[in-house]
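FW: tagging you since you asked about this chain on Friday. Here's the raw sequence from the shared folder, copied in full. Didn't touch anything.
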Amino acid sequence: MAQTSAIVDVLKRLLKEHGLTYQQVAEALDLSEASVKRLFAERQFSLKRLDQICALMGLEITDLVRRLEPAARVQHLTREQEQELVSDTRLLLVAVCALNRWSFEQMLASYTLDAPELIRHLAQLDRMGLLELLPGNRIKPLITHDFTWQKNGPIQRFFESEVQQDFFNCRFNKPGELRLFLSGMLSTQSNELLQQKLRRLALEFRHSHQEDLNLPLEQRFGVSLMLAMRPWEIDAFARYRRPEAGKVYPGH
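HL: got it, structure written out here
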């Protein structure tokens, strides 16, 4: 019962974060507002009702469960901490592996790291608050399910300078690979709608990542997904555009 109450509390908090009222929930469920208030007061939700309310926010029931995580977890690092990671590639490697739930033994077996060096890096990540190094060299990640790197921070800049070119050095024609490039003319409304769908796709990627962390390492593979969208005209075309024919996207 305590777990059920906690889930309902999270549900109420999420509704508030999304700016949704009981009346809006009632309309979505085809119920009266009084009935919805009674559901919350009595904390009596069927899985179907719970799923309907989550869908109203573009979420799933698993999102509610993830929100039950202890509060003392890291959602992002400071820029100084990110700089500390990118300044030492081997430290960054250990951090990525640890946060993907690799064991101490798996890291030793997979990379040219000796035990003392690996322990030193893990201890450094422990001091940074990214993980807890437990007896027997067991590793407990301390990040939230929606952990993100700093926007335009050291990690993102590292990606842009060191990883991006390597990522695209591929024909994307083998199993597990896909590249799409589309070009067209959209209204601002269509642009925003597609961006919302892309954000939901990114959320689904994070959810799949979290769920698959429970699988053995042998069944998991490093996968990267890049999503990009912006109003844009290639320079080869833009240089021929007449000044008076220039178009500025709203808000630019």
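FW: Residues 2-66 form a domain with the 434 Repressor (Amino-terminal Domain) fold (CATH 1.10.260.40).
HL: agreed, and Strands lie at 131-134, 138-141.
FW: great, closing this out.
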